[in-house]
Amino acid sequence: MLRPKIQAGLAKLLKVPIERVIVEANEPERSTHFGKWLCVPICDPRPRHALKIDQNFARIRGKEKLGPFVTNLTSDIEKACGVKPENMIVTADHRGGRAEFRAGCINAEFCMAREPAEELVRQLATDSSYLLTQAQLRTYLAESDLHLVKPVGLRLMDQELLDKILEQVKKKLVKGNVKRIVGVGVGDLGTIAVDVSGDCSKIPPIVMTKIVGAALPDYPGLSIAEIKEFPEECSFNYTIDVISSSQLSVEDKTVRISDASSFMKDLNCPEFMENFNAIMEESKLRVEVTDMVPTSSRGLSQLEFHLQWDKPANATPEDLLDGVCFIYNGSQLLQVLDYRASISEQEIHDGELTKEKSWMGRSINRAIQHSGDDVTSTGGQHRIAMDLDAFPLSVTDLYFVMASSGGEGDGPRDLSAFRNTRVEIHDVVLGRMLTEYKIPTGDKAQARVMCKLSRDPDHNKWVVHGLGIPSEGSVRDYAPIRSLLADRQAGYLRWQRRKHLVVIRVLWKKRRMTEGATNEFALLCKRVLGLPLLAFQCLVKLF
Predict the structure, then answer these.
(1) Interatomic CA distance for residues 196 and 179, integer angstroms
(2) Burial class of residue 94 (count of CB atoms within 10 Å of its CB; 0-12, 13-18, 19+)
(3) How many helices (H) and strands (E) does the chain have?
(4) Which residues are registered as beta bridge partners of 471?
C-alpha cells in the first residue's frame, strides 16, 4: 500500500501524469533485530451501502408488502448494473427524509462492490437511465439517493481510528513494546502497520480481525489476509518516463523546457526530499523518506513492439495476421518490414532502386528486426525490435500496421474474426511494457494502422502516437495502405512549399526586413506578410 502513495507523491511533485511514474519495492532485508513492522492487509470487497428513498415506509410495511418490495428492488438493481446486491435489509429511517412521515422513510442497505455501486449512483442522477425509466420501482427510485460507504482505504488513515486499534493491540501482545501504528490505503484496500520491538510476539489473525472489526462496525465484510513481518526500513526503485516538451509559464512569461536534464536537476536538489516528505504528510502518511542513490537518466532507445492477437474459435492454420512496419523519410517510403524480413532481405520503397536507396535499406535493417511468425494454439504475435539511436537521421516516421491475408486461399478476409488485437510497446532494457493500443472486436477492416513513432524535429526525440486507422489492403497488397500513409505524410511536402513564406513572415515581424521596392508585387507581399495570424494561416494552407 505504500507504493501507490509514493507513486502519487512523485507525480504530484514533478507535475507529470501518474502513469509515467513506476515505483517498485525492493526485496526487504529480513533482519528485524532492532525492530519490525507487523503488516495487516485489509480488504473490503463488498462494502455496505445505503439507499435512502424519500417515500413513506408505511407504504411497504408488513410482510405481504415488504417481501415483494425487497424482491423487486433486488431485481431492478441487478438489471441496472449486472450485479446482484447481497444481504439486503430494508428498514424505516426516522432521521432523514420528510418529517411528516410518522412511519419514517425507506432505508435499504445492501453489500456490493464499489464499481457497480458507482454505476447505480450515475443512473440515479440520469433521467434517461434504466432505473428511472424501466425499473419496476422507478417511482420510488426517482426520489432516492444512494450513499456509498467511505472507502476503507481512506478510513485507515484516520489517526483517531488508528489510536483506538493501537490501544487494543497493546492489550493483546504477550511480549514486546509497540512503538507506533500507521495506516495506508487506496480504495477498498488498505494496510495497517504496527511498529514493534524485535522480540515482539505475533498477533493471531483471528485476534486482529476482531480488533479491526470492532473499530470499523460499518464494514461488516472486511477480510484480513496473512499478517507479515517487515523490517523498520524498506527501499523502493522508481522510474519516470520523460517526454521532452516546452511550456510557457503564465506567472513569469518564460518558457520552461521539460526534459531529462531538468528532471535530474529537480530530483537531485537538496530541497526535493523535504518537499516530498511534506506531500507524504499531506496524504496523512507519517513516514520519513530519504534518497539513497543519486538519480541518473538514460535515453530510451531499445524498444520492442509486440503486435498480438487471439485466434477465433475453430481457427485453422491460415488464421494469421501480420504485423508490418512502414518506415518513412518525410513523404518518401524507405522500407517495409513484415514477416518475410525474418527469412530474406526485401526492398519495398518509393521510386526506382538506386545505390543510395539500397544503402539506406541495409542501414535500416541493422536498426530494426522482425521476429517472423510466433504462433500458439490460442493466438499469435509478431515482435519488431529496434534501436532508435541506430536509425539513419533521415528516418522521420515508423507506422505499425496489423494486416489480414485479404481472403486469399482459406485465410481471413478482415480482422473481424480476431479478438483482443493490440500492440504493446516494451522497454527492452527494463523489461517492462510502456503502453499499449487496442482495436475493437469485430473490426471489419482488412488492415488497421495501430500507432506511429515519429521523430520530434525540435528536440530530436521519438514520440509515440496512437492511431487505430482502418484501411483497405492486406499482406498480399500493400498499395491501399501505402496510399493512406502517403496522404498522412504529405504534410512534409506541404511544409517544403510553405516554409519560405513562413520564414519571410517571421523576418518581417522581427523587423529584420526593410522595404526595398514600391511596385505592385512588393505592395502585395507587404499586405500578405502583415495579415493577422489566423488569416495568414488560412492563406498558407492553400499552398
Answers:
(1) 5
(2) middle
(3) 14, 24
(4) 447
Residue 123: exposed, middle, or buried by beta-carbon count in 10 A (0-12, 13-18, 19+)? Answer: buried
Contact 418, 311 (CB under 8 A): yes
Closest by CA position to 98, among listed 61, 139, 52, 62: 52
Provide CB contacts within 8 A for 354, sequence distance 6+. none
Report if pTM > 0.70.
no
Cα 451 versus chain centre, distance? 17
**How does pLDDT run across 265-310, given as a tens digit for each residue?**
778 787 888 888 888 777 666 667 777 677 777 777 889 988 888 8
Residue 521 confidence (pLDDT) above 90:
no
CA distance 517 to 520: 9
Among 133, 161, 447, smallest CA distance to 321 is for 447
Measured torsion, CA atoms of residues 479, 485, 487, 491, in degrees rounded to the nearest 10: -150
Q: Distance between CA 483 and CA 399 in Å, rounded?
A: 13
Mean pLDDT of 217-227: 84
- Region 35-50 average pLDDT: 85
- Of residues 41 and 229, more confidence is placed in 41
User: Would you tell me how many other CB atoms lie within 10 Å of the CB of residue 417?
Assistant: 19
Torsion of CA 175, 176, 180, 182, to 10 degrees: -70
pLDDT for residue 441:
63
Residue 513 has pLDDT above 80, yes or no: no
**Contact, 132 vs 120, CB < 8 A?**
no
Place of cell 517487515: 230
Distance CA(206)–CA(133), nearest Å, equals 47
The helix (H) or strand (E) run that includes residue 145 is strand 144-147
Distance in angstroms (rounded) separating the CA atoms of residues 512 and 504: 9
Task: Give the C-alpha separation, 541 to 78, whole Å.
Answer: 55
Give the residue from 98, 148, 144, 147 showing the smallest Cα distance to 124. Answer: 144
What contacts 513, CB < 8 A, 6 or more positions away? 504, 507
CA 158 to chain centre: 29
Distance of alpha carbon 357 from alpha carbon 349, whole angstroms = 8
Q: Are 336 and 325 contacting, i.e. CB atoms less than 8 angstroms apart?
A: yes
Cβ-contact 135, 117 below 8 angstroms: no
Mean pLDDT score, 113-132: 92
Termini Cα distance of the chain: 57
How many alpha carbons fall within 13 Å on the CB side of residue 51?
26
For residues 255, 261, 267 and 272, what is the CA-based torsion angle, rounded to 10 degrees?
Answer: -40
Q: Are 222 and 191 in contact (CB under 8 A)?
A: no
